[in-house]
Specification:
By secondary structure, this protein is of the alpha/beta class. It has helices at about 20-55, 65-80, 85-90, 115-135, 150-155, 190-195, 220-230, 240-250, 270-275, 295-305, 340-345, 365-370, 400-410, 415-430, 435-445; strands spanning about 105-110, 135-140, 165-170, 185, 205-210, 235-240, 250-255, 280-285, 310-315, 330-335, 350-355, 375-380, 395. Keywords: Glycosyltransferase, Transferase.
């Protein structure tokens, strides 16, 4: 077994390099922590106002650092509705289930970059509706007053949406500045509460991109999330698994399967195999529980103990400090990379570790496959529609040693790697390379035209 090699493994250096890249990452990490601290302080101020308004005398002990309780208490009072409001929404949202439609209003949370994951998919769909069917999209940014940075970022990502209205919605239930639209589309679960009470539309839809109750412990907030799946909105579901999940709650809709941008994500086998030492990518987001950072870190420690200098582990996906998690000398963290650079990095990696514990696989595994990197991920039955062990990836049980074993074979077994990545590339080419085709099929299934 490869674990036996650890006794003679090359010692792992515990100090990080002092080059300019390390200094740059430190600044980025500090900036990321500063943003988190600012958000937490904002949450504290919001809770203080709610405490005064609703007389929450001892709901939260003074000085507590329990972020979940703060957030759950804020959410309990912020996201609310009456039975009459639900009935009014159902009546308003079923006026014209078959169109024609000319305008759509998207309710979006505040976001910083439009180039990654779910937000990119939302904007891609809005751009597609406008180009293919002439449905002009507007965007209501929930919980913010200044929309100018978001308007600029939307234009940068999708020039076809330049000039489309972007409305601030600092009060999530005050819609004075919003005109009537044909379609109302919510995205993150919190935005569903705004759409529930905005009835100046002919039809309401839910753009569902993860099973969001899993973002929280089973309790108050997860219950509020699940309630949104019973609002009666038609679902536009990102993957068949999410459509099945929506239907579990009585919802109805249509599903699409995500695709990859083949202009950015494509293979270069010679470049990948020329890397010495062999490179492993780690999709690392310690602040996002669903990505199972702790399990991944434990597995990577074992891998580095065994292979030492024979493996180069690089990570990206969020801003964080390797020293805070004891991964100095084990992982080289690159922070948040520009979108185009992710493909450049993936092409140099023999394998990629990307874990997900919810009902959506996320985009990095698809992008890694498209770049010829062997995907290692956790065994999650909700994602078996995509992941097939030994055919397009290696599935591992979610323990440190099981993950370690899979990673060891992915990095060291070239024959295994070439066999699986060849099949994975063909799978991506056949099933995940046509965004327009997927979006058109979904729009037609929902009679959005």
């Amino acid at each position: 077994m490869p674990l036996a090699k650890r006794q003679g493994a090359t010692a792992v250096r515990k100090t990080s390099s002092r080059g300019s890249r390390t200094k740059s990452r430190s600044r980025g990490s500090s900036g990321g922590r500063g943003k988190l601290q600012a958000r937490f302080k904002k949450m504290q101020r919001k809770y203080a106002k709610l405490k005064k308004k609703y007389r929450l005398i001892r709901s939260i002990p003074p000085g507590t650092t329990d972020r979940y309780m703060y957030e759950a208490t804020v959410f309990a009072h912020a996201y609310d509705f009456t039975p009459d409001e639900l009935r009014a929404s159902l009546a308003a949202g079923s006026q014209a289930p078959h169109g024609p439609y000319r305008t759509a209003l998207w309710f979006l949370p505040y976001f910083e970059t439009p180039f990654y994951g779910g937000m990119h998919t939302i904007l891609r769909f809005a751009d597609f509706l406008q180009k293919r069917y002439g449905i002009r999209s507007s965007f209501a940014i929930v919980g913010t007053k200044d929309t100018s940075p978001i308007a600029a970022s939307i234009q940068k990502a999708f020039p076809g949406l330049a000039g489309n209205p972007v409305y601030p919605l600092p009060n999530i239930y005050r819609f004075d500045g919003l005109p009537d639209h044909d379609l109302g589309i919510c995205t993150l679960w919190t935005t569903a509460y705004s759409l529930l009470k905005f009835n100046r539309v002919r039809r309401k839809l839910y753009f569902m991109q993860d099973y969001e109750p899993y973002f929280y412990p089973s309790g108050s907030t997860s219950s509020q999330v699940m309630a949104t799946y019973r609002f009666g909105f038609d679902g536009i579901c990102n993957t068949p698994a999410l459509l099945a999940s929506y239907e579990e709650h009585g919802g109805r809709g249509a599903a699409f399967t995500p695709a990859v941008n083949r202009a950015i994500f494509y293979p270069d086998p010679a470049l990948r195999e020329a890397q010495s030492p062999g490179r492993l990518f780690f999709y690392a987001r310690p602040g996002t529980a669903r990505n199972c950072f702790e399990l991944a870190a434990a597995a990577l420690r074992k891998l580095k103990e065994t292979l030492g200098g024979k493996v180069d582990i690089v990570s990206a996906g969020a801003e964080w400090d390797v020293t805070r998690y004891g991964l100095q000398g084990i992982v080289r963290h690159l922070g948040m990379l520009p979108y185009e650079q992710t493909g450049q990095l993936y092409r140099t990696c023999r394998a990629g570790l990307a874990l997900m514990s919810t009902r959506h696989p996320s985009y990095p595994p698809l992008e890694l496959m498209a770049c010829g990197s062997l995907v290692v991920t956790n065994n999650n039955e909700w994602n078996h529609w995509l992941f097939r062990h030994g055919e397009n990836c290696l599935l591992s049980e979610p323990t440190a040693t099981c993950l370690y074993e899979s990673l060891y074979h992915a990095v060291t077994n070239r024959e295994l790697r070439e066999r699986i990545t060849t099949r994975a590339l063909e799978y991506i080419r056949q099933e995940h390379s046509d965004w327009d085709g997927e979006l058109q099929r979904t729009a037609e299934a929902l009679s959005i035209h």
